[in-house]
Amino acid sequence: MESQFTEEARIAWSSISSQQQHLLHDLKCPHCKSQTHITPTEGLVDNGYLLLNGPCQSCGTNITRVLNWPSS
């Protein structure tokens, strides 16, 4: 599946490349309750937050990682 990021989200996500893997691990899936990680398939910036969406590696449920992001 190809990633779909808005231009603003792509710039924001690229600017924190050294922290990306850390931010995508140790997430709790709301469906299967497992500690998991995601590979983002969608990204956007909304109201000062970088939203990264991707499937749970255990059950496939979509998980959103929300990061505080200073919008310009």
Structure description:
By secondary structure, the protein is of the alpha+beta class. It has one domain. It has 2 helices and 6 strands. The strands form 2 sheets. A 4-stranded mixed sheet has the order 1-4-5-6. A two-stranded antiparallel ribbon has the order 2-3. Strand 5 (49-55) and strand 6 (62-68) form a beta hairpin. The model has no long low-confidence stretch (mean pLDDT 90).
Protein topology:
Blueprint lengths: L3 E2 L1 H9 L4 H5 L2 E2 L6 E2 L5 E5 L2 E7 L6 E7 L4
Parallel strand pairs: 1-4
Antiparallel strand pairs: 2-3, 4-5, 5-6
State the helix count.
2
| First-to-last CA distance | 29 Å
Task: Please state the structural category.
Answer: alpha+beta
Stretches where pLDDT is under 50 for at least 5 consecutive residues are: none
Q: What would you say about this model in short?
A:
The chain is α+β, with helices and mostly antiparallel strands. It is 19% helix and 35% strand.
Which tags fit this structure?
72 residues; alpha+beta; 4-stranded mixed beta sheet; two-stranded antiparallel ribbon; 2 helices; 6 strands; 35% strand
